[in-house]
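Incident review: delayed structure delivery

Summary: a single-chain prediction request sat in the queue longer than the usual turnaround. Root cause was a stuck worker, restarted by the on-call engineer. No data loss occurred. The affected request and its eventual output are reproduced below so the record is complete for anyone auditing the incident later.

Affected input:
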Amino acid sequence: MRMALSTADADLILTLGLGIAIFAIPSVIAAFADGRAPRAGALGIVVSGAMILWAFLGSPEGYTLERIPDAVARTLARVLNR
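Output delivered after worker restart:
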């Protein structure tokens, strides 16, 4: 089942999902180190995982590991050039 997202939308969702994961993973590690429940970090990981999966399923041509840096670069260039 493919969802109809444009390449730019899928790239944006992927980039946001990866950005959330970058902040969520250290949050989980810090919570475990402090002996706390990693609630916020776990929520961040779930949200980022869902966004990354959505982008993978919604991209018209799909993603490979080699294409992910290009997708992030395209998204950042599009945002910074506005």
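Verification: The chain has a mean pLDDT of 92.
Action items: add queue-age alerting; document worker restart procedure.
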